[in-house]
Amino acid sequence: xxxxxxxxxxxxxxxxxxxxxxxxxxxxxxxxxxxxxxxxxxxxxxxxxxxxxxxxxxxxxxxxxxxxxxxxxxxxxxxxxxxxxxxxxxxxxxxxxxxxxxxxxxxxxxxxxxxxxxxxxxxxxxxxxxxxxxxxxxxxxxxxxxxxxxxxxxxxxxxxxxxxxxxxxxxxxxxxxxxxxxxxxxxxxxxxxxxxxxxxxxxxxxxxxxxxxxxxxxxxxxxxxxxxxxxxxxxxxxxxxxxxxxxxxxxxxxxxxxxxxxxxxxxxxxxxxxxxxxxxxxxxxxxxxxxxxxxxxxxxxxxxxxxxxxxxxxxxxxxxxxxxxxxxxxxxxxxxxxxxxxxxxxxxxxxxxxxxxxxxxxxxxxxxxxxxxxxxxxxxxxxxxxxxxxxxxxxxxxxxxxxxxxxxxxxxxxxxxxxxxxxxxxxxxxxxxxxxxxxxxxxxxxxxxxxxxxxxxxxx
Length: 460
Fold this sequence. Notes:
By secondary structure, the protein is α/β, with parallel strands linked by helices. It has 16 helices and 20 strands. It has helices at about 5-10, 25-35, 45-50, 50-60, 90-95, 105-110, 125-140, 175, 200-210, 285-295, 305-310, 340-350, 370-375, 390-395, 415-425, 445-460, and strands spanning about 15-20, 40-45, 65, 80, 100-105, 115-120, 145-150, 165-170, 185-190, 220-225, 240-245, 255-260, 260-265, 270-275, 320-325, 330-335, 355-360, 380-385, 405-410, 430-435. The strands form three sheets. It has a nine-stranded mixed beta sheet with strand order 7-8-6-9-10-11-12-13-14, covered by helices on one side. A six-stranded mixed beta sheet has the order 15-16-20-17-18-19, with helices on both faces. Strands 3-2-1-4-5 form a five-stranded parallel beta sheet, with helices on both faces. The termini are far apart.
């Protein structure tokens, strides 16, 4: 019996609670029903808001607890939490104390996955690095399964996986909290303040990131960012193969950028992989993403596979994505930038000063690092959302700020901000929506925000 078969057998006849009927848990609910579990769904949305999903699952025998008090009376043999509900939540703690086993779709995937797992986490660059690893291994001829925080749950795909396949998994801090899974290879791209509206403090956030490698064994691979003060201090378990990557020059073992050239070094032997300009997607941060991906795939793919992907890969949607050129103005969608460091990376991707649209939901993270970058790289700042005050304050407090050199505009509506930026743009300008903030004030997620931006730009 396979591990997956053991899991489905284990679920048969059990009382199983699923918290959240969103993207990551909907396939899980179907899987549990097929396994013969008695499923109860707790969701913050009302029955009307869930709509057809509520009706359809109810007809299949799923019980619901919905609305404002959805976390009351959490019970069950097993409780699968949605990634956004941290395991430290009092309702989950109470349920665990009463005997419920609290887990998640991702943690269960790690338990039953039949093939090697390559895991990617970090504050910035996760999705692009994850996609690069997937593309490089695919070019090398492997069958790969891409999922996790990137948007596709993988547990239901396990029956289609074989031991010779690879699972490429992006993991958020929420998914990693109290995670006991073991990836065969893992990277922490960097660790900067993020999601402090959810985590108790920065220490809890950092600790969550370390769970990506805490269960690794001798012979596994760990990749760390030599340029990042927090992640470079992490210590791998005994016998784990450690690689580092750096944008600032040579490392002892790993990938690095030097004088515009990408190199790999191991056992004292240096190999030039490519010139920096060979990489199709723009921005220094994407060079760093390639360095991380090179280290992660070194044991499985050739440098020729890396070069082939670098030449042709145009980037991931919502990440400095060129949407349209209208009247000589280039419009870029960088909706993934939900933190200051992500927006900084986006701004640095362009040689000229840009017109920046920013602002959104406040995750209670500092914005002081953003101000100097805005002064250096932005000529117009168009702000909307709860973080507009913080972003404007950071710009005004930065050395070299001048109202003559940096015009600041404020809006109460997202579309109004985009149209305002467009009205002030001239031939040759770049308009980039890179919010430095989460999307939850106006949208379900950054994808919805990015799509709305693209729709508005195409309608200009």
